[in-house]
Specification:
About 75% of the residues lie in helices and about 5% in strands. It is mainly α.
Length: about 230
């Protein structure tokens, strides 16, 4: 984590937030690590005010927790929090793809096919951030095609919490090919307007991700204990 470039176009508090958020998502700031305002301010070359504002936003996202008499620290990834998020995501994604089977137009189908191909290209880079962004872009097309404003809002709110788990999943390069195949199966189901097949693929997709994340967390826990 280096000093922030003052030429950024975003307000400073947003630049600090994005920087700290990325550090947490990629694991450079580890679960349980304390976030000392003065230390971070010195490291990033800013005052404590944007640090404090960023920490408050990170707490709202569930990435940071406030501990009495200790201050802020990076939230742990627990199996229960993972299961909670994945249960909700599965329900929303099944609803989204079923509605997409009814409502997605030809232009959106073209975008979805392009998103499938973009994910495959991103997977070849082995850049976790690019792969995560390509994965998000694919699912966003499906959700937006539902035309359901409330559903779009709910998925958007959940995506902030899901992003951290997505990073854990994508650390495992062996998962990328399977993920690409599942995207292709979702696309084909929507083309055929096959709600049943689409829902089955989404459930398998979420279940595979949950299992892979649990494996990844167990590996990291084992490595940390050595």
């Amino acid at each position: 984590m280096g000093r922030i470039d003052n030429e950024e176009y975003l307000p400073l508090r947003d630049v600090v937030f994005n920087t700290l958020r990325q550090e947490i998502l990629t694991g450079r700031l580890k679960p349980g690590e304390r976030l000392m305002e003065m230390h971070l301010a010195n490291k990033l070359g800013v005052s404590r005010t944007p640090i404090r504002e960023a920490i408050r936003k990170l707490e709202l996202e569930g990435l940071v927790i406030m501990i009495p008499r200790r201050g802020a620290e990076v939230a742990q990834i627990t199996l229960q929090s993972l299961k909670d998020v994945m249960e909700v995501r599965c329900a929303l994604d099944v609803l989204a793809i079923e509605l997409a089977c009814e409502r997605m137009g030809q232009e959106e189908l073209g975008k979805l096919l392009t998103a499938c191909e973009s994910f495959s290209m991103a997977a070849k880079t082995e850049d976790t951030r690019k792969i995560a962004e390509a994965d998000v872009a694919f699912h966003d097309i499906i959700v937006c095609s539902t035309r359901n404003v409330r559903l779009i809002q709910l998925v958007s709110n959940l995506s902030e919490q899901m992003y951290r788990y997505r990073f854990e999943y994508l650390k495992d390069a062996t998962s990328h090919e399977m993920l690409g195949k599942e995207h292709e199966q979702m696309y084909q189901s929507i083309v055929k307007k096959d709600k049943k097949s689409a829902a089955e693929v989404v459930r398998k997709h979420i279940n595979n991700q949950e299992e892979a994340i649990i494996r990844q967390l167990c590996l990291e826990k084992s490595a940390d204990s050595q």
